[in-house]
Amino acid sequence: MDRHIVVIGAGYAGLAAATRAGRKQRVTLIAPEDRFLNRVRQHEVAAGHAEHRPTIAHVLRGRNVTHVQARATELDLAGRKVFTDGGRTPISYDTLVYALGSRTAFHSVPGAREHSYPMERAEELRDRLRRQDDAAVVVVGGGATGIELATELAEAYPERRVAIVDAGEVGGRYSAKGRALVHETLGRLGVEVHEHTEVTAVDDEGLTTASGRIEAGIVAWTASLEVGPLAAQSGLAVNEQGEALVDEYLRSVSHPDVYVVGDAAAVTLPGIGRLRKACATAQPMGWYVGRALARGGASKPYTYRYVVQCMSLGRNSGMVQVVGKDDAMTGRVFGGRTGRLIKAAIVRYVVLGLR
């Protein structure tokens, strides 16, 4: 029986699912991009380095996957149809894989959306930096993405003032040894660190915070992520954050003919807890669902365990934080060139692993 699988979204989870299911099944991939975004390397793009974004056609080569370059705008879950922009004919499916991922969240901070650059707009940030070679830059968000961006920019533009701002602690999720390594690198590169500083507004001259003004000509926003509204609007069961609720096989609890993978899914596993949004969690979900669909269905519940968290700290340094299977920090940290090489190997494997 010829079953038609439709995958919406061409991120880490969506492409991984499409390429694996497409080995034995007929698949349609719906996504507006012609190139893979590769979010984990967007900080490098912002700093002006070469992009590592294969074309989607290259990733899909040799698979029974048709790429419809469009944006999914509506789901008819009862009729099993996907509507797209541009007035195209709805695409019918037997099984849907919902993999629309997440996007930068601005949390209704006045001016943040209008006056800052999220990592989805890394190319625009790169061009702005080149046009204004003397403008100070402030990065909002002290997690891995913000730290990677701040260190990359400080190294690429050593004469430029670069600052990083967080409502809590910069690198606060890491172990004491990991945080120390992060702060040592930020200090060495001359990055200003503003911790416990809540941003209350953004304008074209910088930030207003609960602690006062931080002037900057350019603002980058990496504070947190949120999912889009399509799952909730379409009638999939979701939590308060709009993330789709799934069962142990990553199927929607309300519509079992819909699998949800990646950042769009609310996945809680025994002994592990709630999976965080990351390519490290999204891509394995895509592998699992794609393989299951290639075989005609999942036979074993989805399992996962964490191993490391990693980040680059400029071109020649990095930090690899070893974690327990539940993502709890350990005291083992690899830094410097060793950390950078491990991180580089991981991100290279991410692209290879799409197939």
TrEMBL record:
One of its GO terms (molecular function) is NAD(P)H dehydrogenase (quinone) activity. Keywords: FAD, Flavoprotein, Oxidoreductase. The keyword Oxidoreductase applies. Its cofactor is FAD. One of its GO terms (biological process) is aerobic electron transport chain. Residues 4-273 form the FAD/NAD(P)-binding domain. Gene3D superfamilies: 3.50.50.100. Belongs to the NADH dehydrogenase family. This is FAD-dependent oxidoreductase.
